[in-house]
Amino acid sequence: MEFGTYFIDGKPEFIVAGLGNPGPRYSSTRHNVGFMAIDYIAEKKDTKINREKFNSLTGKCYIAGYCALLLKPQTMMNNSGLALARAADYFRIPPENIIVLYDDIALPVGALRIRPSGSAGGHNGLKSIIEHLGTNEFQRIRFGIGAKPAGSDLADYVLSNIPYFDKPYITDNFKYVLPALELIFNGKTQFAMSKYNRPGKTEQTDESNS
Known about the structure:
Blueprint: E1 14-18, H1 33-44, E2 51-53, E3 56-63, E4 66-73, H2 80-91, E5 98-104, E6 112-115, H3 124-133, E7 139-144, H4 154-158, H5 167-171, H6 177-185, H7 189-196, H8 203-208
Parallel strand pairs: 1-4, 1-5, 5-7
Antiparallel strand pairs: 2-3, 3-4, 6-7
Helix pairs in contact: 2-3, 6-7
C-alpha cells in the first residue's frame, strides 16, 4: 500500500534527486527540468516536497515497495553535491542507490537517457555531485534540452525559459520516470534503459509539425 509523505517514518533506501535552481525566477527554465520531474513524481505519489533539511526541500514516498527520499537541493545548481552528500551521509545511502534527474544539452530536445554511471559531461551540477560523493558511480536519468544555438552563451541558454514548442517534448517524458525507477530500484537498470530511453525530437518531426 502506498502512503503520502506524512505517514512515512522509515529510513530511505534510495535518494531520487532532481537538479535545478531555487526560486520562482528559475522555475520554468531549462536548467530546472530535474526539479520539474521531482514535482511530477511527488504529485503522482501524493507527496509534499516541503521539509527543509540537508540544504534541500525533501519528501518521502514508496516506489516499488522501497522508501525513497525525494530531494530538491536549494544550494543553487553548482553546489548540488553539497546537499546530496549530506543526505546520503545522514541516511548512509550508497552511491548506487542514488538517482539524479537533470537536464542535458548533449541530448536533443525530448530525449530521455538512463545511465548507471558516467562523467559529468560538462554539467556543473553533476561535477559538484561527483566531487562531494567522491565517485561517479551513481545512476542518472537525463532529459534532453537540445544544444545551445551557435554563438550564444551557455548560461543564458540553460537559464532561459523552456520555449512553448519544446516543453511538451520534455515534460511528456516525466511519465516514464516512475516505471523506470521501479525497475532501477529492483536492480534492472539495463532493462529500464532498453524500455524507456527515448531518441527525442527530430528534424523530421519538426517539418511534419510546421
